[in-house]
Specification:
The protein is built from 24 helices and 20 strands. By secondary structure, it is of the alpha/beta class. Bound molecules: thiamine diphosphate and magnesium ion (MG).
């Protein structure tokens, strides 16, 4: 039972909101140096980093205009989302962070990546710099090592822009999807808003892992209108988190989405910081900052970071800034904004403004500033020349890095002995050693949570209630609300936060009540969970599990009865599991939780109350190993999840007629045990595939193709699929039964292909 009662509270009153500070920073470099908050060296580094960002992006402009060619026959391809004009935001934020804090970034993220890398390197000791250089025996002073590391950082950044093997993501991501996990950069995201829940999950994960790190989610003004932003803000501000999540969203408000104007057109608010009022009584400590002033951004971010480190987050900063160029270089920006507007912002140019501060504070002379700019420009050009000459990725390695194919064999000592409120419950075995499928699910979770403190479990109604299907009853009493908690009805945030939390080292298991609701998560599932490893160069581990369920047969109709597993199998990078028995459910779920890759674990609602023998001793079932449920020589029936029972019943009917069907349950769809199916079809010569999804686009179509590819010479008849009709699941019992495969239907199809 929860600690808090919800009593009636209907007395008359006026709800009030607090104040949101706007552009309150009144400092100067001279004053910051005098106060000891900044050193002259730190100021030089701020200027140098802004020059670096601008030099990198000016290079892109020059390459696009053919004013600069890093190699004689070089042709620049790829996105050109430039942040020229916005450098103070990237640099002010990164200058205020610790080297190992996390960030997420956007499609306009060159500046974030360059500045994050530069500041992380500056914070590294000699051993860390040598590690970054990939040369443990590197010689030289720390200054020399840092110079070399900065040169490598520039090179790896440009190499990624060019899609080269030496780039940060081995040319799999490019400039729009750049990440460097070595320095806490969890990735730029070309899905507008796509990173919001990842940032919230990373902050949540970092807090739970107790490493003192925070996460900054850098997003555009346009991203704040996307649902995932709101879900992520709500997730981060949930009151049940007794400690505030160490998350700061920095909205880089450059006034436009692509061309849609934040103020006066596509939102109803003058300042996006106002949105903080929607999420908690602290209004997420919202603040509007002058994003053209690097010191103002740095000051606000320092305070935000402190708030986060004191467990008082989340924080919402809106930095007002301006994108000098169009959305990309193919947008000449003349149709939607005036020259006067551009000039007014350019007059507040962040680099020129900070150069004036530097002069005024006596940190550098005008000549020194000019020389620094010149030096940085030349360094960038040299990086481009070197990158252009470096090798492309090897086409033979195109598949490399998709999965880590590793699992957690040994739990680090720190997480080995979780604090338990009580011993996790074991289901009572019946006389034959059987328990319910749903109890097998709960046992797997309980065992893995007791094994490894990094395993947390959350979703809608999973805590006190134990989930819509009662599959997780009892977990909260054993593990407490720190590790088992309800979320809001925010499917996208449930999956997205799991991605972020997994990327920083937690091992989240989350629940999406019905697979029908996976549609609401598809960006987080297909564009994020599935891609963060491969797209970022095969480096991330994403040890997360999404548990979800399929139904059918209960009269729940179109939006609660679909079999959408093919919606998950179509994204390379996800493993997809569909257990058909209690034994498999337990062994496979335990494997899924230990797996270091993202797993979509699909349970069947009608199997929850089916019993199966489940040993009390620990066991795991490896992925990619089919189970031959019945041997036979006449035809091969492949079925998964509840359809295995249908196939077995069909095999019984056929056996009565003297037909021996072999029934294979692949158990995991990705990876799929092609060998088991191929070997069987080579023996029987006939393949019948059963699934309860509509025929068009179902996973059985993929199996059919693979059977034909691998066992063509053995086939005596066309491969046949028994699937649902191409209609949404109807409610009427008569129609629903007609729609679903039955033993009779499977047996009839078997007879037909045997007659061919
Ligand atoms: C979900 C999604 N919708 C649309 C796009 C196309 N698109 C790319 S950038 C962009 C504008 C984003 O605006 P904002 O968040 O303010 O970032 P900015 O480009 O201004 O940095 C749009 C619409 C996309 N990439 N992703
Ligand atoms: Mg914008």
């Amino acid at each position: 039972m929860r600690e808090l009662d919800v009593l009636p509270r209907c007395e008359a009153e006026t709800l009030r909101f607090g104040e949101i500070p706007k552009c309150r920073y009144a400092g100067s470099l001279r004053a910051e140096i005098a106060a000891g908050r900044l050193t002259p060296q730190a100021a030089r580094e701020m200027l140098e980093t802004m020059f670096l960002v601008r030099a990198f992006e000016s290079l892109i402009v020059d390459m696009k205009n053919n004013k600069f060619k890093p190699a004689p026959d070089f042709k620049f391809v790829g996105a050109t989302h430039l942040s020229i004009g916005q450098e103070a935001v990237a640099v002010g934020v990164m200058a205020a962070l610790h080297g190992d804090d996390y960030i997420t970034s956007s499609h306009r993220g060159h500046g974030h990546s360059i500045a994050k890398g530069a500041y992380a390197l500056r914070a590294m000791d000699e051993a860390q710099l040598k590690n970054f250089l990939g040369d443990p025996n590197a010689s030289g002073t720390r200054e020399e090592l840092l110079d070399r590391a900065m040169a490598l950082h520039r090179f790896k950044t440009v190499a990624e822009l060019f899609g080269k093997e030496a780039g940060y993501c081995r040319g799999r991501g490019g400039g729009m999807h750049i990440a460097d996990f070595n320095v806490g950069h969890l990735g730029a995201n070309a899905i507008v808003g796509g990173s919001c829940a990842i940032a919230a999950g990373a902050a949540f994960g970092a807090q739970r892992l107790g490493e003192g790190k925070i996460c900054v989610g850098l997003i555009g003004d346009g991203a704040t209108n996307n649902g995932i932003f709101h879900e992520a803000c709500n997730f981060a501000a949930m009151e049940q988190f007794k400690r505030g999540i160490p998350l700061t969203f920095v909205i880089e408000n450059n006034q436009y989405g692509m061309t849609g104007q934040q103020c006066g057109e596509v939102t109803g608010v003058d300042y996006l910081a106002r949105r903080g009022a929607a999420y908690n009584a602290e209004m997420m400590h919202a603040e509007v900052v002058d994003g053209m002033n690097v010191l103002a951004v740095w000051d606000a971010m320092l305070r935000a970071a402190e708030t986060c480190r004191n467990d008082q987050g989340p924080v919402l900063l809106e930095a007002l800034c301006y994108r000098y160029y169009g959305h990309s270089l193919s947008d000449n920006r003349t149709t939607y904004r005036t020259q006067e507007e551009e000039e007014a912002w350019r007059a507040r140019d962040p680099i020129r403004a900070f150069s004036r501060e530097i002069l005024d504070a006596g940190v550098m002379t005008e000549a020194e500033i000019a020389a620094l700019e010149q030096q940085v420009t030349e360094q960038m050009r040299q990086a481009a020349i070197d990158a252009a000459a470096s090798p492309d990725p090897d086409p033979a390695q195109i598949e490399e890095g998709l999965f880590s194919n590793t699992s957690c064999e040994e739990v680090p000592a720190r997480f080995k002995s979780p604090k338990l409120l009580e011993e996790p419950r074991r289901a009572r075995r019946d006389g034959q050693g059987r328990i319910l499928y749903r109890h097998a699910v709960a046992e797997a979770l309980a065992e893995e949570m007791a094994r490894d403190e990094r395993v947390v479990f959350y979703g809608e109604d999973v805590a006190d209630y134990g989930g819509a299907f009662q599959a997780t009853v009892g977990l909260i009493s054993a593990f407490g609300r720190e590790r088992v908690f309800n979320t809001a009805i925010s499917e996208a945030a449930i999956v997205g936060t799991a991605v972020g939390a997994a990327m920083v080292g937690l091992r989240p298991v989350c629940e999406i009540m019905y697979i029908d609701f996976m549609g609401l998560t598809m960006d987080q599932t297909g564009n994020q969970a599935a891609k963060v490893r491969y797209m970022f160069g095969g480096k991330a581990l994403v040890p997360m599990v999404v548990r979800t369920t399929v139904g059918g047969g209960k009269g729940y109709a179109g939006q609660h009865s679909q079999s959408l597993e093919a919606m998950c199998t179509m994204f390379p990078g996800l493993k997809v599991v569909m257990p058909s028995t209690a034994y498999d459910a337990k062994g496979l779920l335990k494997t899924a939780i230990r797996d270091n890759d993202p797993v979509i674990f699909i349970e069947h609602q009608l199997l929850y109350t089916e019993k199966g023998v489940v040993p009390e001793e620990e066991y795991l079932i490896p992925f990619g190993q089919a189970n031959i449920r019945r041997e036979g020589k006449d035809l091969t029936i492949v079925a998964y999840s509840r359809m295995v029972d249908v196939a077995l019943a069909a095999a019984e009917l056929l056996a009565a007629e003297g037909i021996e069907a072999e029934v294979i349950d692949p158990r995991t769809l990705i990876p799929f045990d092609y060998d088991a199916v191929t070997t069987s079809v080579q023996k029987t010569g006939r393949a019948l595939l059963v699934c309860q999804a509509p025929e068009t686009g179902c996973f059985a179509e993929h199996i059919a193709y693979q059977v034909q590819k691998r066992a063509w010479g053995s086939l005596k008849a066309p491969v046949r699929i028994v699937a649902a009709y191409n209609v949404p699941p109807p409610m009427s019992q008569v129609l629903e039964m007609e729609n679903l495969p039955t033993p009779e239907k499977v047996a009839r199809n078997a007879r037909e292909i045997l007659a061919m």
